């Protein structure tokens, strides 16, 4: 049986990924650089390099499942495309920034409704987890 590391990369809010912290795989989440107000380099490439360095420092060199939300998806996509040796699968949750006109504000408010994230994430894991 393979051991997977589920890497949670968030944007400004991590609540949507909270249910994933109950998964049966090793989980890893980190604060974005912006959590430290003195740091100004938020570029996805720089952040991705920091995340990869963290993974490597922990001895994690393969079978990473990236679950990224909102602005964290920029970092997640960068890691997935530049380090295919490291990443087993990548899941983007709520990619509204990529398709600004695809979902109206009224529809997008679903993702901020109390309990919506808790209801949606298990379904995503159930359906997309089969591809991991």
Automatic annotation (TrEMBL):
Signal sequence, renumbered to the chain: 1-23
UniProt key word Signal: yes
Keywords annotated in UniProt: Hydrolase, Signal
InterPro entries: AB_hydrolase_fold
Superkingdom field: Eukaryota
Coiled-coil intervals: none
Listed Gene3D superfamilies: alpha/beta hydrolase
One annotated GO molecular function: hydrolase activity
Keyword Signal belongs to the record: yes
Protein name: Alpha beta hydrolase fold protein
């Amino acid at each position: 049986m393979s051991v997977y590391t589920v890497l949670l990369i968030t944007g400004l809010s991590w609540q949507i990924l909270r249910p994933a912290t109950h998964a049966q795989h090793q989980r890893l989440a980190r604060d974005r650089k912006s959590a430290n107000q003195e740091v100004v380099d938020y570029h996805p490439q720089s952040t991705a390099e920091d995340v990869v360095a963290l993974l490597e420092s922990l001895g994690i060199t393969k079978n990473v499942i990236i679950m990224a939300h909102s602005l964290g998806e920029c970092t997640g996509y960068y890691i997935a495309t530049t380090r295919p040796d490291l990443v087993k699968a990548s899941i983007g949750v709520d990619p509204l920034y990529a398709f600004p006109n695809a979902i109206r504000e009224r529809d997008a408010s679903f993702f901020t409704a109390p309990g919506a994230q808790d209801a949606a994430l298990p379904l995503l894991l159930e359906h997309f987890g089969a591809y991991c």
